[in-house]
Amino acid sequence: MRFDYHTQYREGFALWRSPFDRNLYALLLLGLCVLPWFMTPFMLGEMAYVFILCVASLGLMSLTGLTGQVSLGHAAFIAIGAYGHAWFLSKGLPLPVSMLMAALLSAAAGLLVGIPAIRVSGLYLAMVTLAFAIIVEQIIGHWSSVTGGFTGLAVNDPVLIGQSLSGPKAFYYFCLITLVLVLVALLNILRSGMGRALIGVRESEAASYALGIPVERMKAGAFALSAGITGLAGSMLAHHLKYLTPDGFTLLLSLELVLMVVIGGLGSLRGAVLGAVLISSLPTAISRIKPFLPESVAKQFGLETFIFGLVLALFVLFEPMGLNGRWLKIRSFLESFPIYRKDTFKRNKRYMKSERYR
Amino acid sequence: MKTYNASPPLLTVDKLSLTFGGVQAIADLSLEVRPGEVLAVIGPNGAGKTSLLNAVTRVFDPSGGQIHFKGQDLTQMQRHQIATLGIARTFQNIELFEAATVLDNLLLGRHRFFQGHWWQQVLRTPALTRLEEEAHAEVEKIIDFLDLTPWRHAPIAGLPYGVRKVVELGRALCAQPELLFLDEPASGLNPEETRELAFWIDDIRSELGVTVVMVEHDMSLVSAVADRVICMAQGRVLAQGSPPEVQSHPAVIAAYLGA
Amino acid sequence: MNDFWLTFAQLTVNGIAVGAIYALVALGIVLIYKATEVLNFAHGDLLVVSAFSAWGLITVWGLPFWLALMITVLGVALFAFALDALVIRRIAGQPQFAGVMLTIALAFMIRGAVSMLFGPESRNYPTPWSQQSTQLAGLSIANLQLVILGVSMMVTLVLFCFFRFTRLGVAMQAASQNQLAAYLNGVRVKRVNSMVWALGGVTAAFAGVLLAPITLVDISLWFVTLKALSALVLGGFGSIPGAIVGGLLIGLIEQYAGVYMPDGTKDIVAYLVLIAVLIVRPHGLLGEAHGRRV
Hints:
Largest sheet of chain C: 2 strands, antiparallel
Strand order of the largest sheet of chain A: 1-4
Helix content of chain A: 55-70%
Shape of chain C: globular
Strand order of the largest sheet of chain C: 1-2
Radius of gyration of chain A: 21 Å
Number of helices of chain A: 16
Structural class of chain A: mainly alpha
Radius of gyration of chain C: 19 Å
Distance between the termini of chain A: 40 Å
Largest sheet of chain A: 2 strands, antiparallel
Order of helices and strands of chain A: HHHHHHHEEEHHHHEHHHHH
Distance between the termini of chain C: 58 Å
Helix content of chain C: over 70%
Structural class of chain C: mainly alpha
Number of strands of chain A: 4
Shape of chain A: globular
Oligomer: heterotrimer
Strand content of chain A: under 5%
């Protein structure tokens, strides 16, 4: 059993629940820092890609998970971040400035979608974001003068204060540090007034208005924040891909992000990271098990799509709280060990109530 | 029975009217709320009581008339500015933040106070930590006042109905309002909880100095706690006065209370 | 001048023909939404399944077109019924988002399965009206398009009367607004919902089997879902006549944009319309406005 013996308020809202948690996360960070000495350059590249997807997933989570606004088109913001960053780099801006500008550009685009999105919610918002993503994809394809159209756009190597970051180890640390910074920033936001207000907007708009929360501004701001973070991920992705084409940012990427966020567990940053890790390692896992499958099943390219769908369906049906939910359940089991009750998380029968009149 | 001074009214509603489509929810309503009193608004369902609340807190735009709070015209304000003036409310169907804990709900009640600049929040400066601690300290006073200590870290989703009502009351109080609107605070409460509520409303008025306007059906609560009662029917005022006066008014008996 | 009107008229005719398909698909989606409040993102994949089944029945088994059509319609209806009974039903009571996610997951699974079973090449199959067209006052219409138009109108009429005038239709609407209350009123909610899915499957089957000869039997058939969503939004979400009107309008707008607007607009104009409608008039042309009582 775990009991809190807090003597000061600040112990209550600290980032870790106990010294054990703090040590665990410190160990994890240490492990990740030490990893490059034990991995092949290929694996390092893969890990960097996972970190980039984690940042993108955090971006989407801060919109969908925290503010409750669905977005099925976040790949558009990755694309804007990636192409923006490549363009700013080609104009000679230093790396950090270019990334920041790309993130701001993405945030502005997010505001563009967010302001009309205030008036719609739920399903309608999902469709607006979907439409937005398709439009952005087409614009990228046709605006050849800036984006290179369907032939593509080359990306300059990342250089920070004279040092090139394009080597596998350097890029790995670059992505890891960005991920940690984004994570800490989001955690801080969640702990303070802005984060609470975002959750309030998600749960009950009526009550939020009554408490003085400018709901509409919050929703638009959440869009901008989410788009900015996702744009940052896009700028890192540009360096990972080294050559940008429109078909790297399709609807499928948007849905992959949504998968990460949903499977990870809506509303928690840990869930975003877990979901990103799972989804990005799924293709590799599938290719590993292909040799063991019967010939006719393994050779078709539909297998990946099918398995993605299957994983999502299983999570929605059996573990709606996602990987984070499973983590929390395991943790609460361990914490209340001898007196854990078997049906603590049993779901009761529920009836559908129309959401048209929410 | 409390006596109050003749200071200017806190809230004046002047010839207010509110229509929804073809339905006239409020018609030419005028009333005033005096500082330091507990005013009860009673009346049959559909009388426009909650609509009055919603009109004052700017959920709806009135189709005519004026609302003044401490000299300011409320009809020109935006919905989220009402809390900053010192007006708080509870809801008929509890509108708590289900996924958050009781503490988080109460902390959100303090949103109208300065929460720190955005960069302070992102960087978690010592100044912000101090702000957060002050907020926690203030919220603890309310938790103490309403006996919510056992429920402090409980998520709302598992709480019993009576406790939820109290949490909503606490959240409204955390905004440190001058004027508190309660929408049917005793609905769904058992007699013991209703008695506790009566004591709390009295304490809110005397200890915290908050003016309370409550929409209520429970006449025992009204008799116990209210200084003044206004009975509404069909969007208009039917009778005003002290609880005994209104309860014995013939029009009120005919429209609402029964013989 | 005459040329302009001739082109315009031809475009209009094409637009209505294409729009009829969008309308039929939108109809299926709105049916399921009206009854169960689940937005079926897998609807396009039901079209894919119908198209591939029809292909299999016609070219591999050599059945005549009408028989293949009937069998496909029945088969897909049963498939949709099973989808609801076995899978979708389990998330009753969860927020709408869960339904969207589940249908997206099913869409992926169906698409992946069809891909694996049939491979990536596009196929085709003959219909009684392939390669035939009618001439009408100087305009040419493919017979197949006329058939599509006719089928769409007939299906619409039947469904409209169904929802308005039959007890089952009213029961479906009740079940969608408050399931518990519907149960308590004797509505067999689960069975009713599955039947609505089956109806949705029927419209998808008709649309898929009739559309495939035009656009080829291919996985990419599912893209029609997105255009149908635009049609739904334009016509008014939750409104059956709205789905039809929206579909026809989107078809027309696309055709006009292809000729009268800059290059490449045709591909995105449906989505621009969707965004514009949701900003300016969220409940579309014929939809109902909703609000929440506090």
